[in-house]
Amino acid sequence: MRVVMFGYQTWGHRTLQALLDSEHDVVLVVTHPKSEHAYEKIWNDSVADLAEEHGVPVVIRNRPDDDELFQRLKEADPDIIVANNWRTWIPPRIFGLPRHGTLNVHDSLLPKYAGFSPLIWALINGESEVGVTAHMMNDELDAGDIVRQEAVPVGPADTATDLFHKTVDLIAPVTIGALALIAAGQTEFTEQDRSQASFFHKRSLEDSRIDWTWPAEDLQRLVRAQSEPYPSAYAFHKGKRLEVLAAVVSEGRYGGTPGRIFYREGDGVVVVAGADARTGRNHGLAITRVRTEDGRELGATEYFTSMGGYLTSHP
């Protein structure tokens, strides 16, 4: 098939590479300009560079809603558009233009975790598996019929970075497998159960701020989700920002006020956590590694030279 590809960052790059390696003919690529947004500088393999290396024409847009782009798309005469990690709304006159419509590739197990940063949100929420879904685009974001979907398990120590590497390897088989079904003439696919749908916003630095009223289990997943190269989870100690690089749920149960720096346990320092911590039934968050404002990385027992005081959500 003649394919136009809409995509950005490493997700789009992997999609374009899969298309270039396939029997399909990539006739045009549309991608976003480079961004300074903290999350868009991560996994930022260039779709434009890859396309140009293979002699594929490239159009750069923030939004695909102008008449000049629409004319370029009509001239490209695509059988299908394939999109992955396109960050703005694609209007119906574009997604409905190709003979077979538009296939969107999304890094979640739709209908759950539509929208942005699905791996991070899924890890924080304790999901047992994540994956990649290829679905037909319609008027509602990430809501069209599912053509192909594959899942991978979330391990007990997996970080968001681990899940990225697991799921990015699914892009090629999911995309090319879905295109094979479409090229073979299949038109009926699996309708999403919209009663199970959830939609998540873009993450920002504010979303990495630690709230000590969360249970320790949730905070431990937040730390894993905000693993390098993502902005680390953070709190404040004596008015200065302190990044929490590694932590586990404490073995013991600790009562008191959320955020209290309380007890050395193994290689960690336990901080009281949970809105009902006063009951003494909660586990704490045992922090094992931190990074200071001046960039020093230290073991928690080296940084916290004495117990007492608080880690707070704000200076």
C-alpha Rg, in Å?
A: 23 Å
Q: Could you tell me how far the N terminus lies from the C terminus, measured between alpha carbons in angstroms?
A: 57 Å
| Overall pLDDT confidence | 97
Number of strands: 16
String of helices and strands: EHEHEHEHEEHEEHHEHEEEEEEHE
What does this entry look like structurally?
With 315 residues, the protein is of the alpha/beta class. It folds into two domains: 199 residues, Rossmann fold, CATH 3.40.50; 108 residues, Roll (Methionyl-tRNA Fmet Formyltransferase, Chain A, domain 2), CATH 3.10.25. 24% of the residues lie in helices and 28% in strands. It has nine helices and 16 strands. It has a seven-stranded mixed beta sheet with strand order 3-2-1-4-5-7-8, sandwiched between helices. Strands 10, 11, 12, 13, 14, 15 and 16 form a seven-stranded antiparallel beta sheet that branches. Strands 6-9 form a two-stranded parallel sheet. Helix 1 crosses helix 7 and helix 5 runs antiparallel to helix 8. The protein is elongated and about 70 Å long. The termini are far apart. GO terms for molecular function: methionyl-tRNA formyltransferase activity. This is Methionyl-tRNA formyltransferase.
Summed up:
The chain is an alpha/beta fold.
Any chance you could write out the topology, listing elements then pairs?
Layout lengths: L1 E6 L1 H12 L4 E7 L15 H7 L4 E3 L6 H10 L3 E5 L7 H4 L6 E5 L7 E2 L2 H7 L4 E8 L9 E8 L6 H9 L2 H13 L15 E2 L15 H10 L7 E5 L2 E14 L7 E5 L2 E4 L11 E9 L5 E3 H4 L7 E2 L3
Parallel strand pairs: 1-2, 1-4, 2-3, 4-5, 6-9
Antiparallel strand pairs: 5-7, 7-8, 10-11, 10-16, 11-14, 12-13, 13-14, 14-15
Helix pairs in contact: 1-7, 5-8
